[in-house]
Automatic annotation (TrEMBL), chain A:
The lineage of its organism: Eukaryota, Fungi, Dikarya, Basidiomycota, Agaricomycotina. It is found in: Cytoplasm; Nucleus. It comes from the Eukaryota. InterPro entries: Lsm6/sSmF (IPR016487), LSM_dom_sf (IPR010920), Sm (IPR047575), Sm_dom_euk/arc (IPR001163). This is U6 snRNA-associated Sm-like protein LSm6.
Automatic annotation (TrEMBL), chain B:
InterPro entries: LSM_dom_sf (IPR010920), Sm (IPR047575), Sm_dom_euk/arc (IPR001163), U6_snRNA_Lsm2 (IPR016654). PANTHER family: SNRNP CORE PROTEIN FAMILY MEMBER, U6 SNRNA-ASSOCIATED SM-LIKE PROTEIN LSM2. Gene3D superfamilies: 2.30.30.100. Residues 2-76 form the Sm domain. Keywords: mRNA processing, mRNA splicing, Nucleus, Ribonucleoprotein, RNA-binding, Spliceosome. This is LSM complex subunit LSm2. The keyword Flavoprotein does not apply. It comes from Kockovaella imperatae. One of its GO terms (molecular function) is RNA binding.
Automatic annotation (TrEMBL), chain C:
One of its GO terms (molecular function) is RNA binding. Its main location: nucleus. The gene is LSM3. This is LSM complex subunit LSM3. GO terms for biological process: mRNA splicing, via spliceosome. InterPro entries: Lsm3, LSM_dom_sf, Sm, Sm-like_LSM3, Sm_dom_euk/arc. It comes from the Eukaryota. PROSITE patterns: SM. Binds specifically to the 3'-terminal U-tract of U6 snRNA. It is found in: Nucleus. Belongs to the snRNP Sm proteins family. GO terms for cellular component: spliceosomal complex; U4/U6 x U5 tri-snRNP complex; U6 snRNP. Keywords: mRNA processing, mRNA splicing, Nucleus, Ribonucleoprotein, RNA-binding, Spliceosome.
Amino acid sequence: MSASPEPQGGGPPGGSPGDFLKNIVGKRVKVRIGNGIDYHGLLTCLDGYMNVALEDTEEWSKGKVTARYGDCFLRGNNVLYISALEEI
Amino acid sequence: MLIFSFFKTLTDQVITVELKNDLSITGTLKSVDQFLNIRLDGISVENPERHPHMMAVKNCFIRGSVVRYVKMQARSVDTNLLEDATRRGELGGHLSPSDQCRGLKM
Amino acid sequence: MVWSLIVSRNFASVLLQQDNRLDQPGSGSLTYLYFEMEEAANASISEPLDLVKLALGERVFIKLRGDRTVSGVLHAYDAHMNLVLSQVEEAVHIVDVTEDGQAMPLRVDRRQMEMLFVRGDGVILISPQQQ
C-alpha cells in the first residue's frame, strides 16, 4: 500500500475535513445554507455543530446582495457547506 | 436547563403558545418538562372559527418540538436575572461548552 | 527565551519576552512586556456562541425558518438557540401568487410582542443589530 500522493507545488494542503476547517478560520468564506442563500464573510470561528460566526457578512440570494451584517451567527444545522473564497 | 427553569417560573401564568402550524393557544401554564413540553389549562384558540375541533378542548399537552413561540407578559419576567444566569454559562440542554466541540478535534 | 504568562484565562495573555537577539552588548538582557491584543480579541470570541453571549441585553436581528424575521432585546439563550426576547417585532415575508401563477410584490405582516420565547430549532441566523 503506497501513501496517497502529496499535492504538488503549492497546491491546497491535503488533510482531513477538520484540517480544512482549521485552515479557513480567519479567511473569507462562503457559507451556503439549506434554502440556497449564501453568506460571504470573514470566518471568526466555528464549532463541532458547524455553528459559524462571521464578520462583515453579505447575504447573497439569487445572485444579489440582500443584506449585510457586521457580525452574524449561523446555526449549524442550516449549513450545507463552507467554501473558502481565498487561498488557503 | 436555563430555559427549563425559566418556564418553571412562569407556572400558573397565562401564556400564549404559537405552534409551527400557526395554531395559537392561550391558557394557564400548569407544568413544563426538560423537553419544554407544556401543559396548558383553561385554553382558548386565537381563531376558534378556523379551528372548530378545538372548541371543546379545555386543557392540553403540547409537545415541545411543535412550538414556534411562547408569548408572555413582560412583567412576569426578571430580565436582569435571566441575563446574569445566561452569562454565568448555565448553558442549556445537556451540553457543556466543551462537549459542543466534540467531533471537531482540529 | 520566551516565557508566556497567562494572566486572565479568558481575556488576555501577557507575554513576558526576553529576546536574546535584541540584547545590546553590555546592557544586560532586555525584557519586553506587551499585551497580545490579537489574542485578547480572539479570546472574547473563541466559539460561535460567544457572539450571542456578547449580544445579551442588546437588540438582535434574527432570521427564522418560514420566511420570518424577529428583532428584539436578547435576555437569554441556550445551546439550542432557544431565545428569550423583549420588545419584539416579528415580520412575516409573504409572496402572494395570483391565479395565473404570477408572483405578487412581497408583502410583510408585522406584529409586536412584549416578551417572547423563540424555540431554537427555527433559528437560522442571529446578528447584533447595528443602530
